[in-house]
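At this stage, I put together a protein sequence along with its fold in C-alpha cell form, as given directly below:
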Amino acid sequence: MSIAIPFFLFVAVSIPQGTQCFHPVSPIQRTSRFNRFISSSSQISEHELPEENEIDDLTTFDSLGLSSDIMTAVRSQPDWQIPTPVQALAIPQILSDKSASIWCESPTGSGKTAAYVLPLLQELDRKDTEGIASLILCPTRELAVQVGHVISNLSHNIGGKKNWEILTLHGGVPLDPQILALSDAIRVNRTIDVVIATPGRLVDVLTYYENDASRAAEAALGRRLLDALDGRGKTDSSLSLAQIEKLSLDRDDDDGRASMLTLLSGLRHLVIDEADRLLGRGFKSEVDTCLDLIMSTTNTDKMRTWLFSATFPKSIEPRVDRVLKCLGSSAPLRISCANSDRIIDTDVSASLQKRLDRTTTGTTLQKICSASTINHRAIRLEKPKRTLALRKLLEEHPEWERVLVFVSTRYASEHVSRKLRRNGISSSELHGKLDQEARDRRLKSFSKGNIRVLLATDVASRGLDVVGLPAVVNYDLPRSTADFVHRTGRTGRAGKQGYAISFVTASSESHLKLIETRHLPQPIARETLPGFEPDELNWEIQSLASEISPPGTQHSSRGLAHDKMNGGIKGHKRSKKDRLREQEVALERQTREAQK
C-alpha cells in the first residue's frame, strides 16, 4: 500500500519503545530549541515540544552555527541567499553532535552537497591530521568531479591562512599521476584535506604497489630521474653517475608508493554520496573492499560517517544498518527532507520486514517541504517512432535550449544522436565508453548551450547538476525504478520548474505503472502526439501481455509478484555487472570442481 504525505511540516522522533511523537507546526517554523533538545535526549514528552509561536531563527546561513571563515565562502556564492530545508536541518545537527553518524535523505536538487561540505570544511579548518583527513565516495566520475569543483571553489574563498589540499580520484584518466599525488603526501608528510573518489579507482590507487616493494622502488626511481631531467632542462638523458649520486636519486626508497594504506590511518570523515547506489548490489564488491581497507587502518571510533542520497529504498536499509555497525555507528541520526507529494511505499515482503525489524532505530528528524517542481508527462507511442516524436517535441518547444535525453544503451545514444544531427539539431552522446576528457568536454559544451540535446546513459542520472535545465526525456525507461527519480531530478532543481517527459510503449507500460506506484503521488496522465497515435488494439494486447510477463524477463521461482517488488525489470540484454557476476560464479564453481 502507498500513502501520500499531507502538506504540513512535522517532526518525528523515534522512541525506544517503537512509538513516535508528532508535532505539527506551521510551514515556516523551524525552531532551534527543538534542534538543541533532540541532540541531547532520546525521549520527549508533549509539553517539552517547541511552542508554535516561537521565533524561527534558522532562516539564514549565519544562524546555522557556521564559523566566520566558512561564512566568507558562503557569501562568495551569489545564488546562496538562504539555506535549503536539508541544509537548515542537517548542518546544525552535524556541527552540534560530534559523535553521531548521519543518514540523510533529501530530494534531487535540494542542496545535499553543501549540506555536508560546509560542516566538513569547518571541522577540517580547525585542526590538521596526518594523511587523508576526509574521504568522499561517489558512484560516478561526473559526480566526483562536480563535488570536487564545489569543494575547491568553497575552499578558495574561505577566510584564514589554511592551504587546502583537495584531490579527486576517478577512472578514465592515467593512474600514475594519482599514485604520485598520494605518494608525495607520504614523502613530505603532507595532509590531504579531502579526497573525492569512485570506489574502484580508490582501491586501485591504494593497493597498486601493495606487497610489491621492489616494483614500487623502481617506479619511484624512474620518477626521480624524470624529475631531475625536467629540472635541469635536459631532454637526452645525459645525467652522469656522479650527478645521480649527488642528487641522491639512487636511494633505496619507494617514496611511499608501497605504503599508501597508511594515509587512511588519520581518516576522520567518511561521506558516502548517493549512498543507495553505492551500497547496492552493483557496487558491493568495490565498496566492501574500500570499507575493509578503512577498518584495517583507521580508528573508526574517531571517524564520523555521513550517508546522503535522494532515495533510500526499504530494501537497502538492512545493508545500510550493517555498514554503519561495521564502522562503529550503532544509532545514526536519520534526517529526511521530503516533498509534500512524496509517496511512502509500505509494501515490503515478509523476509524484508524481518530484516528491517532487526535494524537499529536511531533518532529521526523529518521535514515536509513544498511539492515537487517537476512536471511529468507520459507520451504513448510505438517504439519505432520515438526518434521522430523527440524531434517533434524539440520543434514544438524552442524555449528548451538544452534537453537531456536518457537512453538504455551506448548504441542507442550514438544512433539517436546521429539521426538528430542529420536533421540539423545539435546533439552529442554521453556514455561509459568515452574517456574522461571527452565526457568532460561534452558536458561543458552542453552546460554552455553549445549542444542542445545530450543523449546519455545512466552515467548522467546521478549528481549531474546543469543549472536551469528545462527538460529531461526518458527515451527508454530505466531498469531500476529508483533511477527514474534520479533521472528526472536533473530538471526542476533549486526550486525552478522543469519538465520530465517519458516515452511509453506498450511493452513498457507495466514498468511505468510500477514506477508510479513506488515513487509518484499519482499516475501520470497518458497523452499522445498528433500523428503518433498507436494502434489501440495492438497496444491493449501488448500492454496486458507486459503486465503478465515483460519481454525478456526471466523470473525467479518465487513468481512475478515477488520479482516486481524486489527489483527493476530487466530486458534481453544483461548489464556488464550481471555478466561479471556470472563470470565470478562460474570461476568459483570451476575452482571447487578442480579442488575435488
Q: What stands out?
A: The CA atoms of residues 506 and 540 lie 7 Å apart. The chain has 21 helices and 19 strands. The domain at 374-548 is CATH 3.40.50.300 (Rossmann fold).
